[in-house]
């Protein structure tokens, strides 16, 4: 019986870790393996072939992605396209994923383009864009189109919530400027599907700190109750700012509705839970109405319904708070 395959070289192990467990056949051959050794690992189910010319070693990813399966899945899709088409550049949603922009759909189709746009046979499941890519940037060793170009490619092909979440995140992370947002919208002109996105670009707001906050804001907007403030500063009697709340509304009687959207992992550690409890107690006063939601609540439309339930009988009317407003509470 054949023996166990020899361990991978340190170079291949490093590459696999950097590439979300993926290796190209070229990389394997370049590190001393032969085609039969590669085929044997595939036959034994140690490796899989996600695309022609690429193998999945199952090697764990590096950094914090190792314990975030969704982030790993997205990045794996982005890297798969590059390995399947050597010399290519990552485009669209995949480029945004590698740039660190948040809000992409869970399932991402691998997509790349060749710098010259020259025709080449596609390698499913990778999408090969036909437009040339005259300019690209290096992101952690991966060639990607710039953020503005990626947004112009991606937004017309997405649904509203992930599209606006990506725009918000790019602004929040400083990867896109307001003028860059205008340029991306202009660059998207003429693309299939762009007409339905016309109003989405104007909804982008870099104050959203997570996709869940974007979903919640859009949910409230659709319910007819756009927030009066985002990331509203909350201070105690002495003027010390001790909190910022994600969404806020000023009620006619002078009280305020404060809405918090919890992140998936941020509040899981015991110390964070304690800090949150102290903070929650301070903002929950006789002059505030506090509601707290999860990302799942925001995605499934529960935020807008609850906000409407509070604001409608109170007779709320839109009154955006000036930038820099600080809410004083007796705490």
Automatic annotation (TrEMBL):
Q: Which InterPro entries match?
A: AbiEi_N
What positions does the domain AbiEi antitoxin N-terminal occupy?
11-54
Checking Pfam families in the record gives: AbiEi_4
Q: What is this protein called?
A: Type IV toxin-antitoxin system AbiEi family antitoxin domain-containing protein
Query: What is the originating organism of this protein?
Result: Isoptericola haloaureus
């Amino acid at each position: 019986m054949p023996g166990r395959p020899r361990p991978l070289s340190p170079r291949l192990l490093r590459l696999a870790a950097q590439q979300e467990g993926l290796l190209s056949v070229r990389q394997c051959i370049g590190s001393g393996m032969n085609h039969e050794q590669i085929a044997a690992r595939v036959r034994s189910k140690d490796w899989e072939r996600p695309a022609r010319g690429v193998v999945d070693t199952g090697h764990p990813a590096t950094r914090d992605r190792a314990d975030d399966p969704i982030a790993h899945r997205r990045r794996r899709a982005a890297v798969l396209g590059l390995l399947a088409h050597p010399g290519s550049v990552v485009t669209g949603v995949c480029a945004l994923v590698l740039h660190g922009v948040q809000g992409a759909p869970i399932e991402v189709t691998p997509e790349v383009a060749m710098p010259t746009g020259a025709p080449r046979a596609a390698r499913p499941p990778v999408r090969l864009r036909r437009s040339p890519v005259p300019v690209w940037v290096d992101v952690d060793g991966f060639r990607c189109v710039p953020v503005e170009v990626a947004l112009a490619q991606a937004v017309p092909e997405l649904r509203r919530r992930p599209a606006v979440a990506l725009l918000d995140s790019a602004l929040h992370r400083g990867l896109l400027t307001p003028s860059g947002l205008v340029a991306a919208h202009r660059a998207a002109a003429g693309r299939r599907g762009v007409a339905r996105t016309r109003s989405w670009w104007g909804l982008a707001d870099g104050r959203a700190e997570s996709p869940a906050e974007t979903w919640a804001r859009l949910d409230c907007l659709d319910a007819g109750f756009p927030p009066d403030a985002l990331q509203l500063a909350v201070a105690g009697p002495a003027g010390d700012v001790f909190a910022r709340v994600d969404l806020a509304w000023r009620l006619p009687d002078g009280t305020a509705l404060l809405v918090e959207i919890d992140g998936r992992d941020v509040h899981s550690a015991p110390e964070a839970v304690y800090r949150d409890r102290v903070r929650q107690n301070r903002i929950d006063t006789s002059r505030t109405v506090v509601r707290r939601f999860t990302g799942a609540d925001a995605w499934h439309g529960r935020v807008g319904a609850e906000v409407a339930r509070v604001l409608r009988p109170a007779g709320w009317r839109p009154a955006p708070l000036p930038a820099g407003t600080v809410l004083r509470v007796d705490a």
